Amino acid sequence: SSSTSSALKLKEIQSKFVVEGASQILVRSTADVCQLLEGGNARRAVACTKLNATSSRSHAILTFHVTNEPDKDQVFEAQWTFVDLAGSERVKESGVTGTALKEACNINSSLNALVNVVRALR
Q: With contact defined as beta carbons under 8 Å apart, do 86 and 57 qualify?
């Protein structure tokens, strides 16, 4: 794994879930956004398996809050959230062992938990 960061923690504050340690950064251009995406990609945890040379070992969430300039007559706001989940792999076929095996089990477990959350929301 190429990641040296620790897992982020989810906290509930005033009936709202917040990711402890997450950043909110003001950007004003496409170049600013690209720079942030490149930085996030550089911190992405990956491992080599029999199935994938750069198998993602981390999840990422990126949310854009967009607001027009404050001097306009009307305020327009939008929010987009993009989620990139680590891939689920069949452990036996991937040939992972040791730390990579633990990561694969944790990834599969977290994806199963996410499936249960989505099912409960229906």
A: yes
